[in-house]
Design goal:
3-stranded antiparallel beta sheet; elongated; 2 domains; Multidrug-efflux Transporter Regulator, Chain: A, Domain 2; mainly alpha
Amino acid sequence: MQTTFSIGELAREFGVTLRTLRFYEDKGLISPQRQGLTRIYGRRERARLKLILLGKRVGFPLDAIREMLDLYDLKDGRTTQLRLALARFGEQVEVLRRQKSDIEQAITELTRTISVIQGMIDARETEAPKTATPALEAAE
């Protein structure tokens, strides 16, 4: 198994830009080793990047992701990290459920509005005479 990775390898593997990796480094979320100007990422940094991207995908802000990642460095057998993660994940599930409900309601309302507008258009088209006006003919 590969133990070190270049910035380009990680960017390709995770589908992110080099700029994204440098941003996460600037924010202290990952800390590659340096050989001159070259960044060398280990398995730890790769795992942290994977967790960062998972956290972002499910809607966690970077501050919350950092807090959970920082707990990996504690020497308590990771119980503290697991408890915090459990609490945060539960909270995020509730946030996502509310968002899902809001989205479903918005889709229902928009679908209803589309039906009403389509009905108005259909009614006007059946009531209006089918003769074209000179202005319409010129526009076509």
